[in-house]
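Notes from hallway chat w/ T.B., transcribed later so I don't forget. T.B. wanted the structure written out for a chain they're using in a teaching module, and asked if we could keep both sequence and structure tokens in one place. Agreed to drop them here.
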Amino acid sequence: MLTKIKEFLNTRNWIFAVSKNSDIITFNLKGINGAYQCIVDVREDFKTFLFVTFNGNSCPESKMPLILDFLNRLNTYLTYGNFEIDIESRQIKFRTSIIVNGFELNNQIIEEIIDRNIWLMDYTSPYFMKLMYSDMEVSDVYKLLIPSPTSEIEQ
């Protein structure tokens, strides 16, 4: 799996580093709304491919309750992947993974996992920043990100 993922990253001309002692690849990307650190963690023995994108900003300690609430609301809305925050470093990350059992990992699958992950982190990044560096409430930021479906329905 690691070889296929490296080949995919090479087709994008992305510069990456491979850990010598494990099946971990790291690289940095710049999106529209921020710069992100990405990690690929391949576990051949478990047949898993994990992809993680870090937001790049540490949440101010005083804003942790707001961010935790926001992450929880986002995660209940998502159908794939999940947001997390490291309590020590206060780094927000988005992770996706797949168990590769009974089929072969290919470029289309790798692209879906990586691109959707990075896109979602980049898309949500401004909303995290609003919570971390303004006086906005979680419910107001969440409504900006995910408008109520009933607000557009006429009866």
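Follow-up for T.B.: The radius of gyration is 17 Å. Might be a good example for the class.
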